[in-house]
Amino acid sequence: MISVLFVDDHEMVRIGVSAYLSAQPDIDVIAEADDGTKAVKLALDLRPDIILMDLVMKEMDGIEATKRIINEWPQAKIIIVTSFLDDEKVYPALEAGATSYMLKTSKASEIAKAIRATYEGQTVLEPEVTGKLMSKMRKNSQAPVLHEQLTEREKDVLRLMKQGKSNQEIADELYIALKTVKVHVSNILGKLDVHDRTQAVIYAFNQKLYE
């Protein structure tokens, strides 16, 4: 079972989505919160597999809650689920450490699919979000050929990351150890000057690599 903490300040949203998720044979909504302060405490106490995080809430917003959770628990997997798509919300949320980004207009079945994919180590981004992030990274990019520093094996790993493969799936496809994949991913992040694999994948899209 994939344990889930659902954070949203709209009770009806929580009721509807939680009911659907709880009906899934592999997903268990173990707790809910209606603000960021409660979310941080529950996340650190319960250590759920996945945290569904709203952005705009009373007491503490989702960006600050994500930062605090990641600071105390770097392995946390947080999916932002929000109505907002502007740059002021999207980029800071992912920079704070969110793994995936979904819109509240997504069907509950799509959120369930995102939960499973994120649990497996993949990054899930709505197409509209990908476009926003690509635009943002173009504006911020000062060295558009950073990927030329990558070794051939690192390029292989980045290509598979872009396809949404988890570390284990990359290891299986390239016939290398999982530990070796993790080293390659760490090297890729350093050479591309990004904070996490989500930003590495966005960089690959931005530079139109492996198309």
TrEMBL record:
Keyword terms, alphabetized: DNA-binding, Phosphoprotein, Transcription, Transcription regulation
Protein name from the UniProt record: DNA-binding response regulator
Keyword Lipoprotein found: no
Compartments, as annotated in UniProt: Cytoplasm
Tagged with keyword Transcription: yes
GO CC annotations, alphabetized: cytoplasm
Gene Ontology MF annotations: DNA binding
Residues found modified as 4-aspartylphosphate: 54
All copies of domain HTH luxR-type, residue ranges: 143-208
InterPro entries: CheY-like_superfamily (IPR011006), NreC/VraR/RcsB-like_REC (IPR058245), Sig_transdc_resp-reg_C-effctor (IPR016032), Sig_transdc_resp-reg_receiver (IPR001789), Tscrpt_reg_LuxR_C (IPR000792), WalR-like (IPR039420)
GO biological process terms on file: phosphorelay signal transduction system; regulation of DNA-templated transcription
SMART domains assigned: HTH_LUXR, REC
UniProt cross-references to PANTHER family, sorted A to Z: TRANSCRIPTIONAL REGULATORY PROTEIN YDFI (PTHR43214:SF37), TWO-COMPONENT RESPONSE REGULATOR (PTHR43214)
Pfam families in the record: GerE (PF00196), Response_reg (PF00072)
Source organism of this protein record: Salipaludibacillus neizhouensis
Response regulatory domain ranges (all copies): 3-119
